[in-house]
Write a structure and sequence with these properties.
It is built from 3 helices and 4 strands. With 188 residues, the chain is α+β, with helices and mostly antiparallel strands. The strands form 2 sheets. The protein has a two-stranded antiparallel sheet. Strands 3-4 form a two-stranded antiparallel ribbon.
Length: 188
């Protein structure tokens, strides 16, 4: 809204043509009344604009505060994102190292650790085969020993002769040079 201009043309004409003090006074009162009304309207207008400006300032300050908070939040998010990216890069490098180390332990030839140039899978497969063969041999020996029946002995005190009463899978041998008695497991 714009304020209208004060039109005092009639009052000025009345002053110009006034002949008596009463006419001058009436023209002056009319002019001052118009000026007063216009000034009151202007003051109300300015006061209204001041209230609008205050409200706008409050809105602008609120938007500014929100924008500042958004900038602060965005900086925090950017910092967090940078930290996460750095951690991810470190994790990626660590994972790549672990993959290489696993390959080193499995097949060797990666240059990651000393003495790695052995195919670990092949080595332990061979070790398993050796252990399986040893277990098979032990089982065969256990089967052979399971057929042994402990012998019983009888000593003839008068003649000094030792007799074996029973027993399976064991033979006794006397060394004639040393007269020592030895025993051995016989084949089943």
């Amino acid at each position: 809204m714009s304020l209208p201009l004060i039109d005092l043309a009639k009052e000025i004409a009345d002053w110009t043509s006034a002949r008596y003090g009463k006419q001058v006074r009436a023209a002056t009162v009319s002019a001052l009344t118009k000026i007063q009304q216009q000034m009151n309207t202007a003051i109300e207008f300015i006061d209204g604009k001041g209230t609008e400006i205050d409200a706008t300032i409050q809105e602008v300050n609120a938007v500014k505060d929100e924008a500042e908070q958004a900038v602060t939040d965005a900086q925090g998010y950017a910092s967090d994102a940078a930290e996460s990216a750095s951690a991810a890069a470190g994790s990626e490098a660590d994972a790549a190292d672990r993959v290489l180390e696993a390959e080193s332990w499995a097949h060797g030839n990666t240059g990651v650790r000393p003495g790695e140039n052995t195919d670990n899978s092949k080595f332990w497969s061979q070790q398993s085969q050796l252990q399986a063969q040893a277990a098979e041999n032990s089982a065969a020996l256990a089967a052979q020993y399971s057929t042994i029946i402990a012998p019983g002995f009888f000593l003839d005190v008068e003649s000094g002769t030792l007799y074996m009463k029973a027993g399976v899978g064991v033979d006794f041998i006397i060394d004639t040079d040393t007269t020592e008695l030895y025993w051995k497991v016989t084949a089943a």
